[in-house]
Amino acid sequence: MKFKNSFQLLQLGLLVFFLLCVSSFSAWADEETVKREDVKKLLKVSGLYDQMLLMKNNLLDTFGATIAFSYPNVPTAFWDEFGDLVEQKDMAQLIDDVAAVYEKHMSHEVILKLIEMFETPFWAEWRSKMPAISQEAGIVGVEWAQKITQSGEFNQRVDALIAKHQLVPATAEESK
Fold first, then answer.
1. 56 and 135 Cβ atoms separated by less than 8 Å
2. 102, 40 in Cβ contact below 8 A?
3. What would the pLDDT profile of 3-35 be if each residue is shown by its tens digit?
């Protein structure tokens, strides 16, 4: 193939460069998609996906308690619908956001090795028990925080620290 001028050679070079870039990007995009799917698999086999469902339930429980306090006569039909307020698309977004964090901090090789590890019978038992353990541990943590913040000793230390730094309470106007 003979080129009549350098312009044709430049065009051919740009075309080859463009095709290489497109194919490289396509391969990279495919690899990133595979890695994202593997991260989602890791979330499932490790039990973290179940933890996210527990987060959803805790969110609804907490918000529901606020509603029950504010509206003492809530009908059962309300609560039946209330559980559906966090939709599947909301959970999918949470999973995508968490997956992005894993992708950022872990190589694909490590993700694959973790999947392999979490698929063993030992980890299957751990995974099945983690939601209950996390829920109970969370309750213990809340009870601990209440015990600390309601203790006279803690509140005396807070008052002493406020006095030491001469903090002045906000006025009603400043609180708005």
1. no
2. no
3. 455 655 556 565 566 655 555 554 444 677 899
